[in-house]
Amino acid sequence: MSLSPPIFLKEREENSSRLVEIQQPQTTSIAAEDPLQNLRLASQEVLQKAQQSGRSKCLKCGGSRMFYCYTCYVPVENVPMEQMPLVKLPLKIDIIKHPNETDGKSTAIHAKLLAPEFVNIYTYPCIPEYEEEDHEVALIFPGPKSVSIKDISFHLQKRIQNNVRGKNDDPDKPSSKRKKTEEQDLNDNKCKETTLKKIIFIDSTWNQTNKIFTDERLQGLLQVELKTRKTCFWRHQKGKPDTFLSTIEAIYYFLVDYHTDILEEKYKGQYDNLLFFYSFMYQLIKNAKCSGDKETRKITH
């Protein structure tokens, strides 16, 4: 790329803000029947032109791709970076991708493209160590131990208290001193805001998630379960219910609920542009299915 990343990010941020503002206000970004219909998105004209012109070259690896390079995590030559929206997120996101997950079919890349400063993608078995920060990190995964988004802060605070008690559990220290130290540490931690700083998503088919989920480096992390929603993903997993979301859908819905339930602010489409690519592909494939256009379906990977 000819311009430096900071300049690109600044231009994209300004472009994103301007384009979102010209959209007509919507009553909600999550319509009951078609969640993608009322999104407040930046102009997708750049994607329309790219789709018409066909595959283009990745400026990093030289590969021929449509819209973006799923290997280098950058847009291709005919999708200028400054014409893409840039999304600001309230926390960091780590995505752990299964090695057998096909890069070209993964929607996790959309998050990295649209929120590059906030999203990191790791291919299993490469996983960061989270043990020292388990009081500010959560894993999105359903199960009997999972908590709702609105209860995240409560459970993270409990972890802080448990960590303090464990740290001061020294049998050689007099009980009165242990108790005094523990009370002091608990009071100090009460002054600190209990904040979720990072959320982890597993990017794989549901049949492959167990290998990653059971990894000891993820054990012990707070598990969070999303509210039930229907997927719009065109690659529906055979034999699975339509409530099994694609990775980018899961990220988007988590952030929407986090914004309203944790930040306690009205949602006004702040994260809708995370579905910039996804919504365009969805509509493209939907139209192709209606018209019987097999070439269009093939062009989206």
From TrEMBL:
EC number(s): the record gives 2.5.1.25
Q: Specify whether Lipid metabolism is a keyword of the entry.
A: no
* One cellular-component annotation, GO: nucleus
Free-text function comment from the UniProt entry: Catalyzes the formation of 3-(3-amino-3-carboxypropyl)uridine (acp3U) at position 20 in the D-loop of several cytoplasmic tRNAs (acp3U(20)).
Give the family this protein belongs to, as stated in its UniProt record: Belongs to the TDD superfamily. DTWD1 family.
Q: Name one Pfam family in it.
A: DTW
Q: Where in the cell is it found?
A: Nucleus
UniProt keywords, alphabetically = Nucleus, S-adenosyl-L-methionine, Transferase, tRNA processing
Q: Name one GO biological process term.
A: tRNA modification
According to the UniProt entry, its GO molecular function terms are: tRNA-uridine aminocarboxypropyltransferase activity
Keyword Transferase present in the record's keywords: the answer is yes
- Record's compositionally biased regions (Basic and acidic residues): 166-187
Q: Which PANTHER family match?
A: NATURAL KILLER CELL-SPECIFIC ANTIGEN KLIP1 (PTHR15627), TRNA-URIDINE AMINOCARBOXYPROPYLTRANSFERASE 1 (PTHR15627:SF8)
For this entry, the protein name equals: tRNA-uridine aminocarboxypropyltransferase 1
Q: Where is the DTW domain?
A: 65-290
Annotated region described as Disordered, given as residue ranges: 163-187
Q: Which reaction does it catalyse?
A: a uridine in tRNA + S-adenosyl-L-methionine = a 3-[(3S)-3-amino-3-carboxypropyl]uridine in tRNA + S-methyl-5'-thioadenosine + H(+)
